[in-house]
Structure formats: structure tokens, C-alpha cells
Amino acid sequence: MRPWGKRAAKDRTDSPTRTAILDAAETLFTLHGYARTTMAHIADEASVSRATTYVYFASRADVFRALARRVRDEIAEVQRTAAASREPHEIIESSIRAGLQVYAAKSRFLTVLAHQALADDDMRGLAEEIHGDSIDVNARFIALLQQRRQADPAASPHAVAHAVNAIMLRFSMDAADDPAELDRLASDTVAMYCRLVGLER
């Protein structure tokens, strides 16, 4: 098997080694930023050889891309789990609280991504991928409520979803700095969501 074929096969395997490399990389990116983190640093932090790191990832950008998509998938899982409820208030409550927890846990990584996105089109695409998927799912949910006459949004479903995402990102920074504030911030976000959507609490 060619080297890149081997890497592709490894990428499809959620192995402990790949997870360890990603965890190590996330730690380093959040501590030192993107530019000051190298593949050698990542290998050392993960306690694997550089050769092993390159089996799983072609470059530092490849590692960073995988981390961004891991955050995206965590947010998507939160939304899928919340959607299991059939009651709008429960969906909003559970998705906001769980989503805020994910954003708070990943806030420093997302800050690094936002900084890189200012000068790098590829990084900007990653940021849009994380937030865009979440916004689109949320917009479809609001549109469905509107269609069922269960809500009267203050603006278009996409605009409201975008505003809620921005609120969550901002509040997640406060929650990361003071985890004890998470419950209050989540309650405030749910209240604002319901008001923006035009859904009585």
C-alpha cells in the first residue's frame, strides 16, 4: 500500500493513537497558537514518533483541520440528540445548554481558529464549516416552527439562527473563564432564543 493510501486508511479508523495526537495538538494550539506549534511538538506531546504522526496526518494544517471538524461533529451530535425530543422548548433548552458546554470547552481553540481565519482562506473555510452547519440546522428548525405556526421569528430563520450562534460564542468565553456561570448563561441564552423565535416560554 502506498504511504498516502495507508494514511487514508488510518484516517478512517478512530484509533487511540489518532485521538492522542489530536488531543495533544489541541493542547498545543490553544497554549501556543497555530504558528508556534509544529508537527515535532505535537509528536512529543502525544508521546509518539514524528513518523507515526505523519501516518495519520499529512501536515500541521491537516491536524488543525481534523480538530476543527471534531468540534463541528460535537456540535452536530448535540443537535441530533436534542432533536430526539418532540417538544420545541425541550429541544431549545437541551441544545443550547449542551452546545454552550461544547463551545466553552473549545473556546480557546476556536479563538485560535478565528485569528488564523483573518489571514488564511482555508482557515476561514474551516470556521465557516463549524458555525455554518450549526446555523443551518438551527435555521431549518426555526423555519419548521414557523411553518407549523408555533413561532413568529423576529427576523428570517437564518438571521435568528446566526444571532443565537453569535450569542453562544460570546457567552462560551465567559463560561470558559468562570464555569460556575454556565447555568446562568445558558438560561439567558434560552430566554433570548425564545424571544427571538417568538416562542412563549
Question: In words, what does this structure look like?
Answer:
The structure is a single chain. The protein has two domains: 3-58, Homeodomain-like (Arc Repressor Mutant, subunit A, Orthogonal Bundle); 64-197, Tetracycline Repressor, domain 2, CATH 1.10.357.10. Helix content is 78%, strand content 0%. It has helices at 3-11, 16-32, 39-46, 50-56, 60-82, 88-105, 107-117, 121-147, 157-177, 182-197. The chain is mostly helical and 201 residues long. Helix 2 packs across helix 7 (107-117), helix 6 packs across helix 9 and helix 6 crosses helix 10 (182-197). It is built from ten helices and no strands. The radius of gyration is 19 Å and the shape is elongated. Mean pLDDT is 89; it is low at 1-7.
What structural keywords apply?
Tetracycline Repressor, domain 2; 10 helices; 2 domains; disordered N terminus
Name the structural class: mainly alpha
How would a crystallographer describe the biggest sheet? none
* Global Rg: 19 Å
Globular, elongated, flat, extended or rod-shaped: what is the shape? elongated
**What is the string of helix and strand elements?**
HHHHHHHHHH
Number of helices: 10
What would CATH call the homologous superfamily of the largest domain? Tetracycline Repressor, domain 2
Instruction: Please indicate the percent range of residues in DSSP E strands (runs of 2 or more).
Output: under 5%
Please tell me the overall pLDDT. Answer: 89
- Which residues sit in consecutive blocks of at least 5 with pLDDT less than 50? 1-7
CATH topology category name of the largest domain:
Tetracycline Repressor, domain 2
Report the CATH architecture of the largest domain. Orthogonal Bundle
The count of domains is: 2
Please provide the count of β strands: 0
Give the assembly state of these chains: single chain
CATH class of the largest domain: Mainly Alpha
Terminal CA distance: 58 Å
